Amino acid sequence: MVPAANTPLVLTQGDPRGIGPELLLRLAADGELRDGDVVVGTPSWLERWAHALPQPWAAAGWARLQACLHAVDEEEPGAAQVRALERGVDLVLEQPGRALVTAPIDKRACHDAGFSFPGHTEYLAHRAGGVEVAMLMVGTRLRVVPVTIHVPLREVAEGLRTEAIVAAGRLLVAALRERFACPQPRVAVLGLNPHAGDRGLFGDEEARIIEPAIAVLRHEHAEITGPMPADAAFPAHDRGRFDAVLAMYHDQGLGPFKLVHFTDGVNMTLGLPFVRTSPDHGTALDIAGRGIADASSMRAAIHIARGERFA
Q1: Which domains does the chain have, with CATH numbers?
Q2: CA distance 149 to 159
Q3: Residue 100 in contact with residue 305, Cβ under 8 Å?
Q4: CA distance 172 to 166
Q5: pTM for this structure?
Q6: Could you write out the three-class secondary structure of 233-286?
Q7: Cβ(196)–Cβ(206) below 8 Å
Q8: CB proximity list for 191: less than 8 A, separation 6 or greater
């Protein structure tokens, strides 16, 4: 069942030097924040952006943000974004029923500040008790889960496991049923090699690793097709043949996804005891402070976190 669209949100500022604060100011001014929502961030950074941005909505957004701001008193950019994330997760875990929306972080700056996780997804899994998680990329036309996430490409084939494909597939099927009104999910499972191995000509991972996973997933009352070449699966998904694609590695899935949903895609973490979404883009330090950042992805992340459909 698709949840009711009334979920209160905890939103984190992300990198205070990037476009995260700008997006929060813009969306607050647009009325996207509701009573009961909380924004976790550094007041001095947010106020600085509110005065520096050339658009009139910046001041209006700051006035609205102050009413729902949970302050993190940390000026150093790397530590500021880490503390905001940590406190945001605290608030969600302390008050079940809230959803978490995270603005983009700078992974290098977080690492330099002592953050020992590759990204949001791994940290959230840790905070939830080491649960199995998957990264679902959501757009109006495409939905994609990569089985492996922040893994160097040279390590993907060696580290790919049937059990990991099954775990990611189960999370995807459950999400399609529970949040996207797909009672009988149709999922395309990609191969690893060119042409999905072409019957072993270009590799045997499809037969050894992926096909056994597909056999298990077909018992989960879902329509599972594959292993499929990515260049066949994505056009079929875009035409409505599938409800989602299960990719084997990061860029295999996110490359096609971002070609279609570069400005409005949403990253949703599956498997957590709470809903978490994020815009599908980075900190965009090169355009921060100019007031030109596209808020579509962050807006969509807010709507999905609340349980709303988005156009």
Answers
A1: 1-133+270-311 (3.40.718.10), 141-263 (3.40.718.10)
A2: 12
A3: yes
A4: 10
A5: 0.91
A6: HHHHHHCCCCCEEEECCHHHHHHHHHHHHCCCCEEEEECCCCCEEEECCCCCCC
A7: yes
A8: 197, 205, 206, 210, 226, 227, 228, 229, 230, 248
Which of 245, 288, 294, 240 lies closest to 265, judged by CA?
A: 294
The alpha-helical segments, DSSP class H, found in the chain are 20-29, 43-52, 57-66, 77-94, 107-112, 120-127, 153-159, 162-179, 205, 211-217, 230-238, 250-261, 296-306
Rounded average pLDDT per 10-residue block, the chain, 311 residues: 70 97 97 96 96 94 96 95 97 96 96 93 94 96 95 93 97 95 96 93 95 94 95 98 98 96 95 96 93 95 86 42
Token pair for 214: 């597909």
